[in-house]
Fold this protein.
Amino acid sequence: MNAPDHPAAQGKIMLVGLGPGSHDHLTARARAAIAEADTIIGYVTYIRLIADLVEGKEVIKKSMTEELDRAVEALDRARQGKKVALISSGDAGVYGMAGPTFEVLFQAGWTPDADIEVEIVPGASAINTCAALVGAPLTHDFCAISLSDLLTPWPTIARRLDAVAYADFVVALYNPKSGRRTQQIVEAQRLFLRHRDPQTPVAIVKSGHRPKQRIELTTLERMAEAEIGMLSTVLIGNSNTFIKHGLMVTPRGYANKYAVEAGERNTHAGEQAGRSLSTGLNGWLATIQASGRSAAELAADYGLPEDYIAAALLSELPPAGEEAEIEG
Amino acid sequence: MNAPDHPAAQGKIMLVGLGPGSHDHLTARARAAIAEADTIIGYVTYIRLIADLVEGKEVIKKSMTEELDRAVEALDRARQGKKVALISSGDAGVYGMAGPTFEVLFQAGWTPDADIEVEIVPGASAINTCAALVGAPLTHDFCAISLSDLLTPWPTIARRLDAVAYADFVVALYNPKSGRRTQQIVEAQRLFLRHRDPQTPVAIVKSGHRPKQRIELTTLERMAEAEIGMLSTVLIGNSNTFIKHGLMVTPRGYANKYAVEAGERNTHAGEQAGRSLSTGLNGWLATIQASGRSAAELAADYGLPEDYIAAALLSELPPAGEEAEIEG
């Protein structure tokens, strides 16, 4: 940080993720950042969630569409030496204010060694906080897709939906529906049904961890009929996800370690439940190299690109061995 | 909750996500859950992160491989009427203890109205907390993939890598590499290079928000050469992600709202920068229906399945209209 010629107060922009909005789920740093700030800027709904923490501060409430205005106001105040908290629900980096703010800062010629400090305070995103309310749906690979086509071309969104439906991710849909934008969730359902069982579990969480919280468990087949709005997050399970006793759970792959009730799990194409050790990378390379089958045949079997299989057939087998993994 | 015949203390299992591990990023609820617990169970490395919060409690340290043991111990203590905090780094639902715990509970005949309460305390996952350290890479659709093939067949992982590389997600790789498991990151790179520019920005965050934090910004082409270990998270940008002044930023799609320096953005196939309003679902349906082109031609143009395009060509145009969206 360069020392300013005049010893003025140094401005700061803090991008604060509130988590779901209840004070219980604020991090210590998020709360301290709000306390440290002279100025609070955010969407009016989110400012309401922390109303008791912003008394005596300058509070700038913006509508949903004024994201760039929020960033411009933050920069303006920070240039005056103010400490500004730009608040987002969930995580400030996930469809939040962090991206637009850096774009505005760069555009204004800001650099990290300039006289305005920028701090990002992470928070739990809607995918995490909604998942916590319905069970354990995110135990395996997952992704987040916004169905808002306001700034993203629909074909880009559709390609993403199709790709992750095929590749069997657990998927969270952000911005699934709004008053005027009602067809996107139907299109998403159509793309998913090309690859997934109509009975795939789906959870719809509205206003999670807030007073008007509402949770609905349904299926892919019935998803589009459910009550979904601007404050809903839609969680679609993978091919192994099940609902039991009102909880949505995605197993991580422990099928070989204890008995599992019949009918709760499916084995995905190319996957063998309980045979994971032998189907890791090394085991798989050994299997395909010993198979005597062509790259084209193997590509069809495994649903993988032929050129990738061809390279794998030529690759040297690394020494075998497995070890435990870290959590995320 | 059914009243027990004997008024014994009611057991409770709290699945607590610590976030990155520093006390600053603990939520109020996570801290309170740890305080409320009689017994703390977790991986030894994570227990060390909260050592000062667990004094005077029974602390059960487990190795990385003993996930089911941890869940079984938690159930055992909860049956004795204890309050147990099962701790995970990041979010307890993301490759964490929530999934294995519900599986063990179900196996033991537990139901939500039984005498043991279960609470999931969400936290910010590594994808969020690492992103906060490098800029704003998650501004657009993203996914998380674990490269651990200990419990997941490699073809499943490879299909997922290929699908999301094609569909232009921002991707976080969890468990990217370990002492013995070094080839998976090379395979991931190979699959990504089938679809992505070798110059795609990549950030590698090791021990984020902890004393030994280390951040490396690199490219897809050089990713596999970087220092990556068990405590690293790898963030791969999408086709619009750029690095500027040491920050990794994914634009959300504001290209039409202010000037952008040449060379920082690419327009993805089928995507027109700054033309988002006319390429939303309604605009796109109108465009393809007026094009006079066949479903096969359009499928090739847009990289979407022909049957999906065929259905879209027949679909009724919903009334036009756009509105603002909620953040996540």
Observations:
- The CA atoms of residues 76 and 82 of chain B lie 9 Å apart.
- The two ends of chain B are 33 Å apart (CA to CA).
- Chain B touches chain A through 144 residues (CB under 8 Å).
